[in-house]
């Protein structure tokens, strides 16, 4: 008897095969994944096929931003899409909470099949079912749903009123025996988080904070037969050695570019799994499902009209042609974001990240689409009051992004580049002049930091603008803390940038010169 566990994770509102930048077709999108899943089901009609949506479904694209901010009456689209795909189980991702818990349960109703073992609303589960057992007669398959406990470190407290997030490892240790006692022959954990350690060596690949506990889950919890992960946007499919045998895991990237597929061969007589493996199925070659595309037909035309509205001009432009160089020396687009962020909270030091190499910058004639496809997160601006030493520490963390190679070239350090490149954790600063001496060891690279022409004083208080995401210190910036916030903006950065470009057009584009890099 063959059991297949298909999963998508981190779809982030990429439903059609489009990147929203233009009308070109892309190699990803939920509409492609739906066709793949249908074909897989048809090809395995005599087998058991269960599908899991593993979180971060309702946020992360211009479409999701438009629905949340302009047309909340369209919020039912998400449940319609999930039903078209035919998910058997769903898990909450961290970005499900970006617009508040009421919006979460409006977009993902109580009866949507969410499995939610470690999120509590006061004393009750946020969603009622921590797990579900699917009875196929000869085999009973239990799925346990978990999400990262780290959400309160990123999310606005007002969005999480009454919610608590428990340790997923301890939660699994509690529920796996309960599921076994309830008759589950096979235990599957669907976890919206990833791996904190190398899957082959067990060596830590990131600072152990609790954000990702996938490896710990496998090493500590007996009885797990398969683990579905997400959150990190990695593409993983393999067997992982544990004290309890080799366990198949998947993590299918993001934007529905792949579907995770775990296979378990189950012997109903002995009640044992006799074979197991894992792979990723790429969606690129599959056409977009017509029902998925039709479901977008109401919102898509007005979304396109809204996004294509010209809001201003930039002279000549703020397009990004070399992303590494932009991080190395600064860029007009980064300066603009820093300026807008700082003005929102009355600060004149500001820091932000070039999230990924998919950020294109702003053209001469800038539309809402240009803003929305560059700044994809519903971040707001906050101001923190920090000491000069705190600022120096934050700069040292940013300086870790670069590594000076023996041949004199510069590349991304393993501290940011493994297991995935976390460009979003490298911040560029405006409002100060500063130098990175890459010849020096980590922790001693920051030189000649000045503010308004005066050297930074370690015990002086400075006001810095950050995104609400960075304000908790995530990404290794331990000198920041929500306890240091002195002002917050209630308007998200997309709207702030849109308003600024509109009100100040035409905007002159200038290459900043406040960051100096020393290599020899």
TrEMBL record:
InterPro entries linked to this entry: 5'-Nucleotdase_C, 5'-Nucleotdase_C_sf, 5'-Nucleotdase_CS, 5_nucleotidase/apyrase, Calcineurin-like_PHP, Metallo-depent_PP-like
Domain 5'-Nucleotidase C-terminal: from-to ranges: 328-478
PROSITE patterns listed in its UniProt record: 5_NUCLEOTIDASE_2
SUPFAM superfamilies: 5'-nucleotidase (syn. UDP-sugar hydrolase), C-terminal domain (SSF55816), Metallo-dependent phosphatases (SSF56300)
Calcineurin-like phosphoesterase domain: residues covered: 7-234
A GO cellular component entry from the record: outer membrane-bounded periplasmic space
Similarity section: Belongs to the 5'-nucleotidase family.
Full protein name: Bifunctional metallophosphatase/5'-nucleotidase
Annotated source species: Oenococcus sicerae
